[in-house]
Design a protein that fits this description.
CATH superfamily of the largest domain: Type I PLP-dependent aspartate aminotransferase-like (Major domain)
Bound molecules: pyridoxal-5'-phosphate
Structural class: alpha/beta
Number of strands: 12
Order of helices and strands: HEHHHEHEHEHEHEEHEHHHEHEEEH
Distance between the termini: 50 Å
């Protein structure tokens, strides 16, 4: 029999696991051409050519033993240094390789940093709607995730509600910018208000409150939006980054943590992150992928492709009568369900071949998430079905 804890996690993860299988099930019933799968954030843009070229060059030219060996828990020193220099260039920082810990994507990075920071029963705050896996990641490290209720309709974090939610047990807060599922980009003013609250509460309770900024969508922004570099605003910030979305490498499991030297107990946190990589069973981030991203970390994905998808889908949905704020980042639309129960609405949409994710799983009932990182053709062919779905609620 599996453990009680695992049983709870399995039940909680059921909605996410279902997203991987539901499209297949629907295709068997409705036929491939009649299913429009907007369920998961699997990029449809190919990785830049340089990624494959670099991998091939490394495989052909690098000593095979060196290429496939275990690496330091924190990553290959030269790779860490290269990433640090790239960040210095982009954000006018003074990092060295010591500030970077290579991880198996943002998921690996978040699990690592939570393992490093949390004692049993510590509280971690986040703002709903939030990436639903945070519940599991925090529980993995023995903590308790507390979601601050959504701020509708802006979906921006509310500093006042944050202040009310912090207790002496609050060890960290997780923010996600740009946000999955809303696509909202948190602006500098909002982040400064959060920082003020955290500074004040650190003083009041006399302990560090770490801000973990989950930023896999940092480069996926539109309409000239910029994502403020949060370590400049709050010194106890650790950034979890990933190449899953920015270079379309979700299956390669590669990302990194940036741990600025200004973070409280910096040396312990960095050293602990290397150890956490090992003891959590990641051991080290994949060696080949570390070397590849070191050479490609300044490459860009085809952002125009996502931007066009966003425009086509958003304009059509608004025209059909759906309510949705136009997102400035990531590749999701967060749309108001046409009935109170978002799960029932998602089930209704399936009758029209449309697969979306209920907002409930993100801590925000009454909304649904549409991942528009799909082929253009999928969006264009899905539009009549979205129209029919809207019409089904008009009487
Ligand atoms: C907000 C957010 N954080 C973390 C992750 C995990 O990404 P990775 O593939 O880098 O582990 C995702 C993946 O969809 C995400 O949307």
């Amino acid at each position: 029999m599996i453990s009680k804890n695992m049983k709870i996690l399995v039940d909680k993860s059921a909605a996410i696991s279902a997203l991987f299988t539901e499209g297949k099930r629907m295709r068997q019933i409705l036929g491939d051409e009649n299913v429009f799968d907007f369920g998961i954030g699997n990029p449809n843009v190919k990785a830049p050519l340089s990624v494959n070229k670099t991998a091939i060059e490394l495989l052909e030219n690098m000593d095979s033993l060196a290429l496939h060996s275990y690496t330091d828990g924190a990553g290959i020193p030269t790779v860490r240094q290269t990433i640090a220099e790239s960040l210095n260039h982009r954000f006018q920082e003074e990092y060295t390789g010591e500030n970077i810990v290579m991880t198996t994507g943002a998921a690996g990075g978040l699990n690592v940093i939570l393992k490093v920071l949390l004692d049993q029963g510590d509280e971690v705050l986040t703002f709903a709607p939030y990436f639903s896996e945070y519940d599991v990641y925090v529980a993995n490290a023995g903590g308790r995730l507390i979601a601050i209720e959504p701020n509708i309709p802006s979906f921006l974090p509310d500093a006042k509600k944050l202040a009310e939610s912090i207790t002496p047990k609050t060890k960290a807060i997780i923010i996600n910018n740009p946000n999955n599922p809303t696509g909202v980009v948190y602006d500098e003013e909002t982040l400064k208000k959060i920082a003020e609250v955290l500074e004040a509460k650190q003083k009041e309770f006399g302990n560090a409150i770490y801000l973990i900024s989950d930023e896999p969508y940092r480069e996926l922004v539109f309409d000239g939006a910029t994502v403020p570099y949060i370590p400049k605003i709050y010194k106890n910030t650790i950034v979890a980054y990933s190449f899953s979305k920015s270079l379309s490498l979700p299956g390669d499991r590669i990302g990194y943590l940036t741990i600025p030297s200004s973070v409280e107990d910096f040396q312990d946190v960095v050293y602990g992150a290397g150890v956490a990589n090992r003891v959590l069973g990641f051991v080290n981030a994949p060696a080949l992928q570390q070397l590849v991203v070191a050479k490609c970390c300044d490459e860009k994905s085809d952002i125009a492709f996502y931007d066009n998808n966003r425009g086509i889908l958003y304009n059509a949905l608004i025209q059909y009568g759906f309510e949705c704020a136009k997102p400035q980042g990531a590749f999701y639309l967060f749309v108001k369900a046409l009935e109170e129960d978002d799960v029932a609405f998602v089930n209704k949409a399936k009758e029209f071949g449309i697969l979306m994710t209920p907002g409930d799983g993100f801590g925000c009932k009454g909304y649904v998430r549409i991942a528009y990182c799909v082929a253009r053709d999928t969006i264009e062919r899905a539009l009549p079905s979205f129209k029919k779905l809207a019409e089904a609620y008009k009487h």
